Amino acid sequence: MKLLISESEIKKRVKVLANKINEDYKGKNPIFIGILNGCYVFMADLLREIELDVEVDFVKIRSYEGDSSTGTIKFRKDISADINGRDIIIVEDIIDSGFTINFLVNRLRNSGPKSVAVATALFKNEVAKLDFDIDYVGFEIPPEFVVGYGLDYNEKYRHLKDVMVMEPEDIK
Ligand code: IMP
Ligand code: MG
User: Fold this and answer.
1) Which helix (H) or strand (E) segment is 8 a member of?
2) Could you say which of 96, 131, 135, 170 is catalytic?
3) How far is the CA of 24 from the centre of ligand 1 (A)?
């Protein structure tokens, strides 16, 4: 595996994103909705830099098997919070094809939130097909398969502190 983004670069960038959110949502009480499992490291880092009165919830969605998207969404856990009239910030580990985030944004919009924004640690801009802009992007990365900082390959490597690129020979 080779290093793509180091722990210290991530730390600095997360602070910048959080400061931007703190400014953009001044006086508001957004609900952060994380997409499990991948979001948990980024979500924990981001939230601890947030100085607003916030709530936290999670959904669990699965679209990936191994190193590729299956093209279908499996919904494993829905939100518990009532999001009607609320400002929502969805927190994702990575946006690849955009399939997952498109699905979730459209689904949440049906529940009448006041606003929906998206924060993602990583963004494969060259691959993603989206009909909206991503509000808070940690890093744009090339279209390679990465692990670490919450991201997995078959549930492994989520605990790595840096973002690493998997070599093709590591992907079986
Ligand atoms: P999308 O639906 O194609 O945008 O993919 C989003 C989901 O696929 C993410 O939430 C990740 O769980 C997973 N994923 C996409 N790219 C990668 C990667 O490079 N490494 C690990 N997981 C990935
Ligand atoms: Mg994920």
Assistant:
1) helix 7-24
2) 96
3) 27
pTM of the entire structure?
A: 0.94
Tokens of 125: 């801009």
- Dihedral sign of CA atoms 70, 74, 78, 84 in order: positive
What is the residue-level pLDDT of the chain in tens, covering all 172 positions? 999 999 999 999 999 999 999 999 999 999 999 999 999 999 999 999 999 999 999 999 887 677 777 778 878 888 888 899 999 999 999 999 999 999 999 999 999 999 999 999 999 998 889 989 999 999 999 999 999 999 999 999 999 999 999 988 877 6
Two structure tokens written together for 154: 């078959």
> For this structure, is 131 an active site residue?
no
What is the residue whose two structure tokens read 């998207």? Answer: 69
Pull the structure tokens for residue 109: 């919009």
Residue 87, both tokens:
């400002």
Q: Which ligand has the shortest distance to the CA of 36?
A: 2
Do the beta carbons of residue 45 and residue 11 sit within 8 Å?
yes
SS3 label, residue 132: coil
Compute the distance from residue 86 Cα to the ligand 2 centre, in Å.
24
The bridge status of strand 55-65 relative to strand 31-36 is parallel
